[in-house]
Design a protein that fits this description.
Two copies of one chain form a homodimer.
Chain A lengths: L8 H8 L11 E3 L6 E3 L5 E11 L10 H19 L2 E11 L4 H18 L3 E8 L3 E11 L14 E5 L4 H10 L6 H12 L5 H7 L5 E4 L4 H12 L2 E5 L7 H6 L2 H10 L6 E5 L4 H11 L3 E8 L3 E5 L18
Parallel strand pairs in A: 4-5, 9-12
Antiparallel strand pairs in A: 1-2, 3-6, 4-6, 7-10, 7-11, 8-10, 9-11
Helix pairs in contact in A: 2-3, 2-6, 4-5, 6-10
């Protein structure tokens, strides 16, 4: 039963959004409860920030659990910090809710708390408004000066790497929309890959000074690598045989479909990055020390655009090339 | 006629949200177009930030002009910087739109550009998503260390001040919902007071080191002064005769209703602040030098709660005491 009782905005914040994330942070000078939050970074550090909105029915299914929504909302934004190589500092939350549903808020708050503890990000400010369910998170991270992993540094000859496996989240999303044969263990794995994407914060930080460009894979490898190519004014070739797939994806969909999901599916929040080939050994070692699989999947060349070729050298073609919010 | 044509998120951002606000900013190290934006502040400066969401039908009427919505959205957030005494640095925008309506976006973009130029705030990052119209803005400002105007510094004996006139925006909102006799000049004045609130940035900065506590009036003077009292563990008494009202408000509503709007209406985005009485002359002079009227409206005492008394010393009573988003 859903219990709804009147609750002011101030009570709501105090009950569900106070003391989220680590309590002590040397960077947070003022947290929730004033007109502004205040951050102070050590001398020589810069502040990286990214804002993302998740809308019900667009970025997660309408019936998604509030615990899962909260975890996913924070992870998706933290992934942008990972892609720059930034260390977590704090986050803000603008939450639009259709009504004050306290059991819902209780679960949402628990998910947010778990994710904030996991990523070591205190909640320092926010806004709650009434409307269709939407969650906007802005994350803030710190970086030494002039060292951020931008999209614009890829050079011809650089190798292209990805972390983890690709396509899990897209298969998970498909499974939510149409049922097909999976075991309960496979379903649980896919569910967690969609709702609890693992922002690769530690990897991003380790790549500072090694990678030439980086991006997180939110729209699909083809589309996101395309952003690196555009920003760097280079071309990219991917090798279809090298694209890393989880055992579950290999088991539940055929190989052509698996490749399609891996290249165009998005939502995996793994990192795609480029680096000079002399960095290859060190980068693979980085991944091993963090227990994050790193796979070399292609090469940067002069030109523009992204192509994927199979073992025979033929271009792999798909009707779509990545998720566009407004197509 | 509304023309709708397919537009990718990237084209949309490039067409309507690039180069908004001052182009050159020494604090902005990386703007729109990467996974994160990057800010760097001078040594000794802290970063103040505030996030606010405006939802169609809640924070502005459904038929509001996109130009007005954009201006209001930025001003409302900048007002939080003003309330801390911060200087503007940059802002981010998370925009949720029902569809890609290019004439709408054109006007919205123009309003955002005008406000960003006015407040000298570059747009450094954002997100666009599809859903019910909602605008989330996070503003960032800079402050010297340990000098921010918090809500928690008011002391018994301090005088209470407000900038500008109160109640204009509430009368404007009422006029949008029910018609009553106003001249077109009065209507234009009220419209601009609602849609183009004047965030008191310069005043806030001038009050650093002079005011003991400050807040911007978004929910109504009684409610917002109540936040100062709660955070400072003090009580406040307001003098009803002192509450500053515009000539238009005095002309179009009776005096009791005018006082009600001024005390409970919200949306004016003037500053309410407290200061030791020894600062009175300097504060009034501040206002004069900025051409911002400053009015002393009451006094802080030991205790808790906010009351307003009339000339006879009787307590002025209203059924409501400020706008609560979820009541």
């Amino acid at each position: 039963m859903t219990v709804r009782e009147p609750l002011t905005e101030f009570e709501l914040i105090s009950r569900y959004f106070s003391a989220i994330g680590p309590i002590k942070s040397s960077s947070v000078k003022l947290g929730i409860g004033d007109d502004c939050a205040i951050l102070s970074l050590p001398v020589g550090q810069q502040l990286a920030m990214s804002i993302d909105t998740l809308v019900a029915g667009r970025h997660f299914p309408d019936g998604a659990q509030p615990y899962d929504i909260a975890r996913r909302a924070l992870a998706v934004s933290v992934s942008d910090l990972a892609a720059m190589g930034a260390s977590p500092v704090a986050f803000t939350l603008a939450l639009t809710l259709p009504d004050v549903d306290q059991p819902w808020l209780q679960q949402f708050s628990a998910g947010l708390r778990d994710a904030a503890d996991y990523y070591q990000l205190p909640l320092i400010g926010g806004d709650t408004t009434q409307g269709m369910l939407a969650i906007t998170v802005q994350v803030h991270g710190s970086l030494p000066q002039n060292i951020a992993l931008k999209r614009s540094g890829a050079k011809p000859g650089d190798a292209i790497f990805v972390s983890g496996n690709l396509g899990d989240a897209a298969v998970a999303l498909t499974l939510m929309q149409q049922s097909f044969d999976v075991t309960s263990a496979q379903q649980a794995f896919l569910h967690s890959r969609f709702y609890q994407p693992q922002a690769q914060l530690a990897l991003g930080q380790q790549l500072l000074g090694k990678a030439s460009a980086a991006i997180d894979i939110s729209d699909g490898l083809l589309a996101d690598l395309g952003h690196i190519c555009k920003a760097s004014a280079v071309a990219a070739t991917l090798y279809s045989q090298q694209i890393p797939l989880s055992d579950v994806v290999k088991d539940v969909v055929d190989s052509q479909r698996a490749l399609y999901y891996a290249l165009t599916g998005g939502d995996d929040y793994e990192l795609c990055f480029t680096a000079p080939v002399v960095q290859r050994a060190e980068i693979i070692a980085c991944g091993q020390s963090l227990a994050v699989p790193i796979t070399e999947v292609g090469v940067i060349a002069a030109g523009d655009g992204v192509q994927c070729i199979d073992q025979a050298g033929a271009i792999v073609d798909f009707p779509h090339s990545g998720y566009q919010h407004f197509q």
